[in-house]
Design brief:
2 domains, alpha/beta, Alpha-Beta Plaits, binds ribulose-5-phosphate, single chain
Amino acid sequence: MNSEEFKKMAAQSAMEKLQGRKIVGIGTGSTVKYLIDEIGADHLRFQNTLFVPTSNDSEKKLIQHGLKVTHEFSGFIDITIDGCDEIDPDGRLIKGGGGALTREKMVAYNSREVVIIADSTKSVDKLGDFGVPVEILPFLWRNTIERLNEFCRTEIKGDPESKTDNGNLVAMVRTGKMNDPEKVFNFIKNIPGVVEVGIFLNLTNSSIICGRDGCSFKDYPLNKR
Ligand code: 5RP
């Protein structure tokens, strides 16, 4: 079995979490794509469910399956299921490899429950080897990159012409393994021009990580909101 099959196993295992949920946040990426396919295959069961997508890509896929999506409502999302680029033993995450980190963080923050699905390559002891994706405004973007570079080696992710769904750019800050992700988060978040930082703290309620030894289900009780 390969990592694609493990992503699919994690997505399939997450399906039971959707039982009885009315408003569901849907993340972005290849792992979540498997989840959307599973939901789509059972779309009659989800006729009364409202989905809050974290990207135009996930939104398009949900609509293709005939599911209802919204960007606007008040109150809380019942549950959000999303992938990650890295997850540490406390459920802290690096996200944004797919450029959707700002909407992903907003959706997670406004959810009563957040479940992370991933293959076991995403599981790390310390966050940071992936780099930290940071969404930045196009205005004075070279200056923002320079300020980030003074802190840690930073480059623009991909083509500077390609924009996020919010019309912004994504920078990659090459922190390497972080001893104190909260400190790094606070430092980067304080730089004007930074919209959001791909370090997700205290947001994960549980994870489903699948690999060669099967799937492991973990709760992070300290993150309960
Ligand atoms: C997108 C993300 C994704 O969740 C992350 O990049 C993981 O993607 P994949 O499931 O394709 O490995 O944060 O912004």
